[in-house]
Amino acid sequence: MNKKEVLQALPIILFIIIINILAVSGIAEEENIIASISNPRMVLYKAITNNEPLEFQNSVFVNNENDFEVKITIKPMGVWKENAKVREETFTLQPDERKEAIYDITITEPGEYAGEILVLFEKQGYPNTLSLMQRLVVHVTEEDTKPSIAGNAIGNSGIKILGTSTTILFLVVLVLLSIFVRKKQVKKSGEKNNRKK
After folding, report:
1. Is 196 domain-assigned?
2. b/e string for 71-92 if b means 16 or more Cβ within 10 A?
3. Which of 14, 60, 74, 115 could form a disulfide with 78 if both were Cys (CB 3.0 to 4.6 A apart)?
4. Strands across the sheet with 90-93, in order?
5. Same domain flag for 38 and 14
6. H or E element at residue 132
7. Alpha carbons 146 and 151: distance in angstroms, whole number
8. pTM for the whole thing?
9. Mean pLDDT score, 5-11
């Protein structure tokens, strides 16, 4: 191909490239899903009391920022498959709608529990699903409501006795220190008197 033929074919090639770009961007724009959740990471501190199961609710806020309805599916993952129960696993959000997806958690033993709550966004007729995850970490300690022996033994009066004992010990150390310093001064003055003689 010579230079003249290339220049004649150039407008046709550019036209085909532009049409392909517009067609692909039009399809992609039509099929894009915007996924949004409001609390993607949560760290909670809880306590089990008297070996009773710890039960509480938590949630993830799901936002539809699209101009079409979106089907939402909530799935606990990892440790939460066994410990979390989603109240409404699947629902539909209208454009610009926001919903709190609530799930109930039950934990029976102290420890650290970490996993994800998967949020799937689906558009009807669209082959792909978009997903986001809420990372949920729960630190569970054991709290015993029985009175502590150490706590009751010391109490307020124990703190007063401890404070009084510390004060007396401090005074004894001061007295001993002052006696030691006095003896040293007497010893030095005695040595000076011996030198003068």
Report:
1. no
2. ebbbbbebbbeebbebeeeeee
3. 115
4. 41-49, 129-143, 111-122, 70-76, 90-93
5. no
6. strand 129-143
7. 11
8. 0.58
9. 62
